[in-house]
Amino acid sequence: RYSELPPWLDERIRTGLASRGIEQLYRHQALAVEAIRAGEDVVVVTPTASGKSLCYSLPILQAVADDPSARALCLFPTKALGHDQVAEFSALSAASGLAIPTATYDGDTPAPIRSAIRTAGQVVATNPDMLHAAILPHHTKWFQLFEQLRIIVVDELHTYRGVFGSHVANVLRRLLRLCDHYGSRPVIVCCSATIANPAELARTLTGRPARLVDENGAPSGDRHVLLVDPPLLEASTGVRASALTLSQRWALPFLRAGRQTIVFGRSRTAVELLLTGLREALREGFGPRSRVRGYRAGYLPTERRAIERGLRDGEVLGVVATNALELGVDIGQLDVSVLAGYPGSVAATWQQFGRAGRRQETSVAVLVATAAPVDQYVIHHPEFLLSGSPEEARLDPDNLHVLLGHLKAATFELPFRPGETFGSGTADELLAFLAEEGHVRQAADGRWYWSSENFPASAISLRTAAQENVVIIDTTCTSPRSSMSIVSTGTNARPMCGASTSTTTRRRIAP
Length: 511
Description:
alpha/beta; Rossmann fold; 4 domains; 7-stranded parallel β-sheet; globular
């Protein structure tokens, strides 16, 4: 279902869209951009490859067309996705003749470039970790961004759940508090894969109600879904044939037929085993080993970008990946998705299925179960997967283990006024507790100031509730202070030594 381009859209942006073959918008894109134009917060929930990124790209472009000093901040859960979306936005910006300074600000950004991004970057793509530790505590260096901030993008909303989501909700509280200090009230645009409670999640994460746009107008081709149960090898023990071996067998015919295929493994080890097996099976008459690649955490950023580019231009025919490729990185049009094991949720399963058939062509999705009880339940109750609702995403940003750390960080960033809220209530009682601990003090005017020498953001890990590292020592090992392992990256194998450090908690566990 299509809609016409909005009448208020700048002619330069229309020209840029036309150069990319876009003459109309999908229905959900049109609804989203109109709501954002009206100043509403929005959460867009449509399937993979439905053009969600245009829902925020067009409003950002129009904001800069209306006011050349306008700025936008885009949050992506992974660095790969941030780089991918920056490249896409920059191409559309250049085609529109706006040439908006756009940059990725993450751990890989060289120090000399960071200063230029702070002063000149109009569209800044980053991740929650960098926002938390490198931007908010140093907001005075980013005053141009905060003063002129018009749009905040929170992509892949469904990933912000549990402890991670609870931390990110508090990071966003700190962000919006600083925006208020600098006099800006940006619109928040959330994009999500299909989950059961997107509007509720967006409100809990951002603290503000959002308009739900879930009327998908994008066309899609047919998808054939196959659920494969490995044969039982030993009835008395329930041992079944290897899901990795079967996944390899299902992927091979498609690869030999020239169909671009992605195979998802549940772990790094599974990825390397599948990759080795596929390359060995395709050794005869298939061409270079590089036509089938691995993709997971641990690869160099340059390697990952090369693999993504190879998938888009067709040089890479097959890729074996962890859920690092589950999110919306542009890897072009794939034909087949094979899952070596149930990913753990209905939402993640359909997200991985959706990596194939990203246009209107027919695609194939194969789920190969393991012998695990959850996998066996799914395989014997296909309605759970094919007809059931995806899971709800839950978080608790007011959990004191999470909240107190961010309250410290927020006080470091900006003193609290008496009666000022942080989260669901006023912060005075918690600040009084922190004062007893020696972290903050209350001045004569009633304001609360940070008084500790510590840098509070550095003590917070967004991925965990506990703040200690634990080293497990094998008492049978002859060298308890270090261990040796072989790390494979799909192209070579090398020994890696790991040693404990003084910053970890050491707990001896008997063998």
